[in-house]
Design goal:
The chain is an alpha+beta fold. Helix content is 39%, strand content 24%. The protein has helices spanning 29-32, 57-76, 84-97, 113-119, 141-151, 155-164, and strands at 14-18, 24-26, 41-48, 51-56, 98-102, 108-110, 126-131, 136-139.
């Protein structure tokens, strides 16, 4: 479960951007108004092939650390003792899933090497930047089109579900 995020506005929008010759991207002005990581500290995360997400470090830390701590507690309590292959798999994925990065001037950042391979992009290639409420997603254009074509027809049902969901 995502922690409560102190924001007055969700991060939304869909923008096409081109990677420069050194794999750098700049965030659109529309994102800069709502995505304001403290001191420019961010975390970039591998989601699915062709899809990354960019989080402000504070929100990511709350979300990520809570969940990893829960796994560690279960491991230390002996609940996962027979699951060594899954624990090793978890460790491998955890080790390579995210990296801390810094936003530079003009909200520009460098796509790290393993992340650009995961996104399957080259310099001077277009990528899609998508507002995903609490983070910014970076998509390979073909993967984005495929995803949104499959998901958009369920928008109305999703909205109704969120509107009718009771707060705990």
């Amino acid at each position: 479960m995502l922690p409560m995020v102190e924001t007055k506005k969700l991060i939304t929008g869909e923008f096409s951007r081109t990677l420069d010759d050194r794999y750098r991207l700049s965030l659109p002005d529309e994102f800069k108004d709502v995505f304001k990581p403290e001191a420019g500290k961010c975390v970039i995360v591998k989601e699915n092939p062709g899809h990354l997400s960019l989080w402000d470090e504070t929100t990511w830390k709350q979300h990520h650390d809570t969940r990893v701590e829960m796994v560690l507690q279960r491991l230390n309590a002996g609940y996962l003792g027979q699951n060594m292959p899954d624990i090793q798999r978890f460790g491998r994925l955890l080790s390579t899933r995210h990296r801390h990065i810094q936003l530079a001037d003009k909200a520009r950042f460098l796509l790290p090497e393993g992340f650009r391979d995961f996104l399957a992009v080259e310099p001077k290639q277009e990528v899609m930047l998508i507002g995903a409420s609490f983070c910014i997603e970076i998509w390979h254009p073909k993967k984005w089109i495929s995803y949104i074509e499959g998901d958009m027809p369920q928008f109305g049902d999703l909205l109704e579900s969120l509107l009718n969901n009771k707060v705990n």
